Amino acid sequence: MSVRGYFFALSKRTFLLSLRMLLLVPAGLPVHSQGDSQSDNKVMDNITVRQGETVFLRCGQGDVVTHTAWLNRSSILYAGEDKWSVDSRVSLVTLNQEEFTIKIENVDMTDEGQYVCAVQTSSRPRTTSVHILVQVPPKIINLSKDIVVNEGSNVTLMCQASGKPEPSISWKLISSSGDLGSDDDYLEIPSISRQRAGTYECTAVNEIDTDVQTVDITVNYVPAVSEGRDVGVTLGQRGVLECEADAVPEPEFEWYKEDRRIYTGVDGMEISNTGSLSKLTFFNVSDADYGNYTCVATNKLGSSNTSFLMYVVIEPTSSTLLQGPRAVQDGSGGAAGLHLHTCLLGLVFLPFLLRF
Predict the structure, then answer these.
(1) Strands 210-225, 239-248: parallel, antiparallel or unpaired by DSSP?
(2) Which residues, if any, are the signal sequence (predicted)?
């Protein structure tokens, strides 16, 4: 170290020590006061600032000032026009006979605390202290990951947030209306049902701002197959049996006729599966296709089934349509109809014949 550097460091330490000893810099918790006009040590109201904003620290001078400095706890920020702080956010705004003002930009939680303006005049020293309170918007810092559980399991979701003032936590299932009645970091869901699956929203709020994040719960459950509908099909026509199952994860389907499993592409039948729906298609129904069928839906939790009946539908012939539904098909029936028609004609013309 050079001689010049040595003396500069020595003078810096000497000046700091003299400020501490001479000015009796106060320390302690933040207070609210307008100051004591009878004292040389003045305490100003707390300054509340939000994280990221700029704060100005003002100190009146007056009289004949020989030395003046702004201190943060044990560190000198500015001694007159000389900047002692290495923090680039701290800068001098005004220094004259009436005012000594510095500013701190982009304020953070580390800037919270007591600041002291120390003034040495020709008569006596005095200090002005102020406490900076930094408010921080809420930020969710710890949230449960998306989870997959089986129906009936106990589930706990966690949502932790930082901020000042301390944020409050609330939970909401987006697919339902209203909050879930929990204002805790943890949401307990005992014996979860499929109706409680979905996206859960955690909201952290304080008087500064709001932070919202979500977590998804997937609930696995056994397939539930809709009741099968019987289908009537005309011989030689196309027929379709449809099987629908509600399940998570999505089910796999199997089709049976009696006890025999059916495979797609065999005997003119095709099986097509789309999500929760399975279709068994007959392109040209034969006599052998009529009967009872069973659809089985399966996932890793279990299975469910339903039954169908495919029955024959007789297509009406052209002669049946012409005769109508009350037509009689034998010969005696035709003669009786003709005789009845003749009798009716006789009754109509009988009054005219009697007049002659």
Answers:
(1) antiparallel
(2) 1-30
Q: How far is CA 106 from CA 91, 101, 172, 206, 352, in A?
A: 12, 17, 34, 20, 121
Contacts of 261 (CB under 8 A, 6+ apart): 254, 255
Residue at which a domain ends, from 101, 118, 136: 136
Q: What's the CATH code of the domain at 266?
A: 2.60.40.10
Distant-in-sequence, close-in-space partners of 297: CB < 8 Å, separation ≥ 6: 223, 225, 243, 245, 247, 251, 252, 253, 278, 303, 304, 305
Q: Which residue has the higher pLDDT, 31 or 312?
A: 312
Instruction: Look at residue 326 in the predicted model and tell me its pLDDT.
Output: 35
Q: What is the pLDDT of residue 325?
A: 40
Q: Which DSSP string corresponds to 263-301?
A: -TTSTTEEEEEETTEEEEEESS--GGG-EEEEEEEEETT
Question: 103 and 56 in contact (C-beta within 8 Å)?
Answer: yes
| DSSP letters for 130-157 | EEEEEEEEEEEEEEPPPEEEETT--EEE
Q: Which neighbouring-strand residues pair with 154?
A: none
Residue range 322-346, pLDDT digits in tens: 444 433 333 333 434 434 344 444 4
44 secondary structure, DSSP code: P
Classify strands 65-72 and 75-79 as parallel, antiparallel or unpaired: antiparallel
Torsion angle (degrees, nearest 10) of CA 133, 134, 135, 137: -170
Residues 214, 239 within the same domain: no
More confident residue, 337 or 54: 54
Q: What is the phi/psi pair of residue 123, to 5°?
A: -100, -55
Q: Which residues span the domain enclosing 66?
A: 41-136
Burial class (CB within 10 angstroms; exposed 0-12, middle 13-18, buried 19+) of 219: buried
Distance of alpha carbon 249 from alpha carbon 191, whole angstroms: 19
What is the overall mean pLDDT for the chain? 82
Domain total of the chain: 3
The position carrying tokens 């003045």 is 42
pLDDT at 82: 94
pLDDT, tens digit, for every residue of 154-208?
999 999 999 999 999 999 999 876 666 677 899 999 999 999 999 999 999 999 9
